[in-house]
């Protein structure tokens, strides 16, 4: 027990002494610096405990510790007071109640660093308190009750006022939220309308390009043919000036035809109508052909064009026309912006990623970092004095990247101003014809479906997509795939339900399945199961081969 100084003691021989103890307890609490509410709590707690023990040789001692007001009541009741009603109520009014054999200690914490008078003065003031009658004490308790009731009424009024303010604020916020919701609904409706208009405009643009393609190319080819007739050996002789002007017409027409072809090819790529037709291609032959055909296009002397193809990457199953177009664009840009040094084409195999890596590196002017990403935007050209003399449309790199994505690969640039630029084309390394005719990817994640399509390029002829299990069932009913990739977490019909439906359908039960999910531990047993996290092309292809071979 903490060291305490006794202030006063009082015997509890009769009920009248309980009133005295209550009065002394409240006075001691006041002198100790407690708030009026705490004074009433101490007095009431002493009254309840005193009522339990008076008349049994009980003695109460009020003492003051450094940070507590302590009241110790000794009594002769050896049966204990642990379950008494008075002690339970006292425990709710003070900070601590301790019960020992024949003793009850009540403690109330004091405010720290409160200046109090000398202990002798406190004792004198408590001693001078005259005994009180039950009627006087009852009158004091009534006054305390009335004061407490006033406090309760005041607090209730403040609470009611607060509730009124909260209700008004709630009504205001509700009105503002409702107005905001109406604005959001109107915005969504406007966005839907704009989206519909954009879709219609895009469809109209695609129809325009599809219709105008023949009409644009045909007259230009006719002009080029007529120029050839005029300047050819079978035409009438032209004066030197006439021959020069006809040559200018021919050059301008060929330039215009190349520009129209770029625009039409770009429109075709944007509309998603790029359909690769892979064949077995010798990359050595492609590199040598480009070396011969691109060498005359060098506009500056002192630039060496070289190439190297690693033997392990010499054969690739790819759309040759798309690949040549990509490499021609990259080499053309490299030669155009290189005044001296070297432009080099390298082909190697990346066994870790099961890819062929083709790089076109130059020692040209380079691209500033702030423009490096923007060069893949349509019609964007890096500003600068060197760019003014280099003719172009700004469509070569965007079109090359779209072709690379259509082939299941990627195209990236790395450049240092004044030192040169390196373009890196990565394509799936598949040296033979596709092993699978049709693969269905059933997943609500559009990003994963696109990634799966790229990884399966060259391995599968057709890759179909379904955004949920219901769409997958419809796709399988229309064209049964050789294998289906299934995500377990999908809307409408999820992966588990889709597997059950397939098992119940004789036409679909025999289709091999690979489960690709973020939670492979919950996938059905007996299936090839892959995690989406860090999935590589070689892992996916091996899982498909195992599933088709009947392996778990």
Automatic annotation (TrEMBL):
One molecular function GO term is: histidine phosphotransfer kinase activity
Kindly state which keywords UniProt assigns to this record, in alphabetical order.
Answer: Coiled coil, Kinase, Phosphoprotein, Transferase, Two-component regulatory system
Q: Which residues carry this modification: 4-aspartylphosphate?
A: 487
- The source's domain of life comes to Bacteria
Q: Where's the Histidine kinase domain?
A: 211-431
The record's EC number reads 2.7.13.3
Location in or out of the cell: Cell membrane
Record protein name field: histidine kinase
């Amino acid at each position: 027990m903490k060291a305490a100084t006794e202030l006063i003691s009082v015997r509890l021989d009769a009920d009248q002494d309980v009133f005295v103890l209550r009065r002394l307890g409240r006075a001691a609490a006041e002198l100790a610096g407690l708030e009026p509410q705490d004074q009433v709590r101490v007095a009431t707690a002493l009254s309840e405990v005193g009522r339990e023990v008076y008349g049994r040789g009980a003695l109460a001692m009020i003492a003051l510790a450094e940070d507590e007001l302590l009241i110790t009541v000794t009594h002769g009741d050896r049966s204990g007071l642990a379950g008494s009603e008075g002690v339970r109520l006292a425990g709710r009014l003070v900070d601590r109640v301790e019960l020992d054999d024949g003793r009850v200690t009540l403690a109330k914490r004091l405010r720290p660093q409160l200046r109090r008078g000398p202990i002798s003065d406190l004792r004198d003031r408590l001693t001078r308190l005259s005994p009180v009658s039950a009627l006087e004490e009852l009158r004091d308790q009534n006054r305390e009750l009335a004061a407490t009731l006033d406090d309760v009424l005041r607090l209730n009024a403040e609470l009611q006022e607060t509730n009124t303010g909260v209700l008004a604020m709630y009504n205001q916020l509700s009105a503002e939220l409702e107005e905001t919701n109406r604005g959001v609904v109107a915005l969504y409706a406007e966005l839907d309308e704009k989206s519909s208009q954009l879709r219609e405009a895009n469809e109209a643009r695609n129809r325009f390009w599809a219709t105008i393609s023949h009409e644009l190319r045909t007259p230009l080819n006719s002009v080029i043919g007529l120029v050839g007739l005029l300047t050819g050996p079978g035409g009438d002789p032209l004066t030197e000036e006439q021959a020069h002007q006809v040559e200018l017409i021919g050059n301008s027409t060929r330039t215009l035809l190349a520009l129209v072809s770029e625009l039409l090819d770009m429109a075709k790529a944007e509309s998603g109508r790029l359909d690769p037709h892979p064949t077995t291609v010798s990359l050595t032959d492609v590199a040598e052909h480009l070396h011969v055909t691109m060498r005359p296009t060098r506009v500056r002397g002192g630039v060496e064009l070289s190439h190297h193809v690693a033997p392990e990457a010499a054969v690739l199953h790819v759309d040759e026309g798309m690949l040549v177009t990509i490499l021609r664009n990259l080499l053309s840009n490299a030669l155009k912006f290189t005044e001296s040094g070297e432009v080099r084409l390298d082909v190697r195999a990346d066994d870790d990623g099961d890819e062929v890596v083709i790089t076109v590196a130059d020692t040209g002017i380079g691209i500033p970092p702030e423009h490096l990403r923007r060069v893949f935007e349509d019609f964007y050209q890096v500003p600068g004095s060197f760019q003014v003399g280099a003719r172009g449309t700004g469509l070569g790199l965007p079109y090359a990247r779209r072709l690379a994505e259509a082939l299941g690969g990627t195209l990236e640039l790395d450049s240092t101003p004044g030192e040169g630029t390196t373009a890196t084309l990565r394509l799936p390394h598949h040296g033979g014809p596709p092993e699978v005719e049709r693969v269905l990817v059933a997943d609500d994640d559009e990003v994963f479906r696109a990634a799966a399509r790229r990884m399966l390029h060259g391995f599968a002829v057709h890759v179909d997509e379904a955004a949920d299990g219901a769409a997958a069932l419809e796709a399988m009913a229309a064209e049964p795939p050789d294998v289906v990739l299934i995500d377990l977490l999908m809307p409408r019909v999820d992966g588990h339900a889709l597997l059950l439906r397939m098992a119940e359908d004789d036409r679909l039960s025999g289709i091999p399945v690979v489960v690709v999910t973020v939670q492979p531990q919950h996938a059905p047993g007996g299936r090839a199961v892959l995690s989406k996290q860090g999935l590589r092309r070689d892992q996916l292809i091996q899982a498909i081969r195992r599933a088709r071979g009947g392996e778990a």
